[in-house]
Amino acid sequence: PCNDKDIELAMGMHLQVMGDTANLRAARNIFTRLRTWAAGGQVNTPCRDQGIELGLASVFVDMGEWEQFDRLQLEKQLFPGFETCLCFSVRCFRELTEAKDILPAHTTLLGKALHWAVLAVERSERTSASCLSQLAHCFRLLSVWPQLRLQTLGIEEKMEYEFRDKAELLFSLANELEPHRQELKKDEIWRVKERQLRVIAKQTCL
Q1: Which of 10, 93, 100, 118 is the most buried (most CB within 10 A)?
Q2: Rounded CA gap, 99 and 83, in Å?
C-alpha cells in the first residue's frame, strides 16, 4: 500500500479486470482500505469519494456480494453524473442472472434494473455506450419475460417485439459510440448466465 490514492485505485481496478476470486478479493481489500482512509479512519463509513465508493460497489457486484453492496447505501450519497445509476442497474441485473426459476422477486429485480438503466441513459444524455448497452440488456430480457410477471410492472399487453426492437436499437447506438465493443469476446460468466436466464424465461412462457 502507498499514500497515493490514484495509484491504489488504478491497482484495484486492474486486479478487478484480471478477475478470478483471488484478484477480486485483493481489489476489494484495496478499495476497503481506501474507503477507511478517506473516511478519517472510520471503518464501514461512507467516504463521499465517488471513485472509491463506486469502485468498491463494482467489486461487490463482480463477487456477487449483494448485501455488502446494499450496505454502502449509495442512494443516500447523491453523487453527480450517471455512474451511480448505472452501478445500481448492473447490480440488480447481475443478481437477476443468478436465477434458476422465474419468481416474483426476480421480476422486481428486473424492474429495478430497468428503472436505474433509464435514469443512467437520461443522465448521460445518451452519450455513454455502457448506459445504452445496459438498458438494451434490460429490454432484451423483457422481450422474453413471462407476460403474467410483466403485469406486476404495469405492462399489460404483450410487447416482446417492441422490447426486442428497442434492445437492438440501443445496442446499435452503443456500438456507434464505441465501435470497438463489437470486437470484444463477450465471454464473461454473467453473459453466459444471462443467456441461460433468457432460455428459462422463454420456457416459462410456454
Answers
A1: 93
A2: 25
Q: How far apart are the first and last CA of the chain?
A: 55
Burial 38-47 (b: 16+ CB within 10 A, else e): bbeeeeeebb
- Give, in degrees to the nearest 5, the angle at Cα 190 between 153 and 105: 30
DSSP 8-state assignment for residue 184: S
CA dihedral 54, 12, 17, 50 (to 10 degrees): 20
Q: Which long-range contacts (CB under 8 A, 24 or more apart) does 14-21 make?
A: 16/55, 16/58, 16/59, 16/62, 19/62, 21/63
Beta strands, E only, the chain: none
pLDDT per residue as tens digits for the range 116-154 = 999 999 999 999 999 999 999 999 999 999 988 888 888
DSSP H helix total and E strand total for the chain: 10, 0
Mention every residue, 6+ apart, whose C-beta is less than 8 A from residue 127: 177
Give the distance from CA 147 to its chain's centroid.
24
Query: The pTM is what?
Result: 0.92
Long-range pairs of 76-82 with CB within 8 A, sequence gap ≥ 24 = 76/46, 77/46, 77/48, 77/50, 77/53, 79/50, 79/53, 79/54, 80/50, 81/50, 81/123, 81/124, 82/119, 82/120, 82/121, 82/123, 82/124, 82/128, 82/131
198 neighbors 141 (Cβ within 8 angstroms): yes
